[in-house]
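Quick note —
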Amino acid sequence: MGDDLRAVKWRNWKVHFAWQEAKYDPILRFSTVPKVVDLTRDPREMRAVAEPYNGWIQYPITKLLLNYQASLAKYPNVPVGAPDTYAPKQ
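Predicted structure written out below.
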């Protein structure tokens, strides 16, 4: 999946920005409202939470995403195919 952020988990909630039902199925991207799942009630992620009731989750998820992006800027991911001896630049 590379640099493609597909979902974020926070507490018992998971927010999907992209969804792929099976390995070779096309990727469904949620451009305006992501798919939100309550993992306590639906651990198999079969149903999304009703739209009017999941808007509040954007605030903690946005904070997580901003912190993650800042972390990536400071500590980039190991490149794909990097040797075991790879050491990030200091």
